[in-house]
C-alpha cells in the first residue's frame, strides 16, 4: 500500500491515478495521447503534468521526441505509485467502473475500511481534512455502487456503521 500522504496527494486530482496508470503500463506517454485517452483538455493536462513533474514521479524522456511534443516516463520514485495506480485502475475495470466513476474520496474511504466496520466520526477523523459533506457524499456513492454496506450499531441510540462489501474488499486488496 502507498504511504498515507501519497494516497491523499493522489486523490487531490481526479487525473493523477488514471494518468500514472497509463504511464506505468505504457512505459512512456506523450501529452497529445494522454489528452485523447483520458478525455482531458490540454490546459488541464499541462497543470496535471506539471504537478506530477514537481512531485518527482514523472520526468520528460530526454532521448525522445521533439521538445514541443515531449514524452513522459515514470521516475524511479514514481514507479511504485504507477504500479499501484495500474492495479487500482485494473480492479476498477474488473468491477465494471470506468476511470472516472468514483469520486475523489472513494479510494481513501475504501482503504480506511479494509475489513472493519466503523462509524462516520471515526472516518471523518481518519480522513482529515475531509469535510462532513464530502464524506457523506462519498459514503452515499459507495453505497450506491455496492462497494460499501451500512448497518446499525447495537446500542442506544443506534448509530450507523460502514463496512466494505465483497466488491469493496476486492478494490481494497488491489490498493494493498
Topology, pairings included?
Elements: H1 4-10, H2 16-26, E1 29-30, H3 31-38, H4 42-55, E2 58-60, E3 71-74, H5 79-94, H6 106-113, E4 118-119, H7 120-126, H8 132-144, E5 148-152, E6 160-164, H9 166-175
Antiparallel strand pairs: 1-3, 2-3, 4-6, 5-6
Brief overview:
With 176 residues, this protein is mainly α. Helix content is 53%, strand content 12%.
Protein traits:
single chain; three-stranded antiparallel β-sheet; Arc Repressor Mutant, subunit A; mainly alpha; elongated; 6 strands; 176 residues; 53% helix
Describe the model.
This protein has 176 residues and is mainly alpha-helical. It has two domains: 4-94, Arc Repressor Mutant, subunit A (Orthogonal Bundle); 106-175, Arc Repressor Mutant, subunit A. Helices cover 53% and strands 12% of the residues. It is built from nine helices and six strands. The protein has helices at 4-10, 16-26, 31-38, 42-55, 79-94, 106-113, 120-126, 132-144, 166-175; strands spanning 29-30, 58-60, 71-74, 118-119, 148-152, 160-164. The strands form two sheets. The protein has a three-stranded antiparallel beta sheet with strand order 1-3-2. A three-stranded antiparallel beta sheet has the order 4-6-5. A hairpin with a 7-residue loop joins strand 5 and strand 6. Helix 2 (16-26) crosses helix 5 (79-94).
Give me the side-by-side strand order of the main sheet: 1-3-2
Query: Which percent bin holds the helix content?
Result: 40-55%
**Number of helical elements:** 9
Termini separation: 4 Å
Give the integer mean of the pLDDT values: 89
Number of structural domains: 2
Spans of 5+ residues with little confidence (pLDDT < 50)? none
Strand content: 5-15%
CATH architecture grouping of the largest domain: Orthogonal Bundle
- Which structural class matches the secondary elements? mainly alpha
The largest sheet, given as strand count, sense and whether it forms a barrel, is:
3 strands, antiparallel
Q: What do we call the CATH homologous superfamily of the largest domain?
A: Winged helix-like DNA-binding domain superfamily/Winged helix DNA-binding domain
H/E series, N to C?
A: HHEHHEEHHEHHEEH
β-strand number: 6
CATH topology call of the largest domain: Arc Repressor Mutant, subunit A
Amino acid at each position: 500500500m502507498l504511504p498515507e500522504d501519497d494516497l491523499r496527494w493522489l486523490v487531490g486530482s481526479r487525473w493523477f491515478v488514471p494518468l500514472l496508470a497509463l504511464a506505468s503500463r505504457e512505459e512512456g506517454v506523450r501529452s497529445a495521447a494522454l489528452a485523447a485517452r483520458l478525455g482531458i483538455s490540454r490546459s488541464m493536462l499541462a497543470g496535471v503534468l506539471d504537478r506530477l513533474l514537481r512531485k518527482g514521479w514523472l520526468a520528460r524522456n530526454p532521448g525522445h521526441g521533439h521538445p514541443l511534443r515531449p514524452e513522459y516516463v515514470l521516475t524511479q520514485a514514481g514507479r511504485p505509485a504507477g504500479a499501484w495506480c495500474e492495479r487500482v485502475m485494473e480492479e476498477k475495470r474488473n468491477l465494471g467502473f470506468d476511470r472516472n466513476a468514483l469520486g475523489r474520496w472513494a479510494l481513501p474511504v475504501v482503504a480506511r475500511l479494509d475489513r472493519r466496520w466503523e462509524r462516520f466520526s471515526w472516518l471523518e477523523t481518519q480522513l482529515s481534512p475531509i469535510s462532513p459533506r464530502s464524506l457523506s457524499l462519498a459514503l452515499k456513492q459507495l453505497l450506491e455502487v455496492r462497494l460499501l454496506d451500512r448497518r446499525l450499531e447495537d446500542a442506544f441510540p443506534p448509530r450507523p456503521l460502514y463496512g466494505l462489501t465483497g466488491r469493496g474488499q476486492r478494490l481494497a486488496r488491489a490498493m494493498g
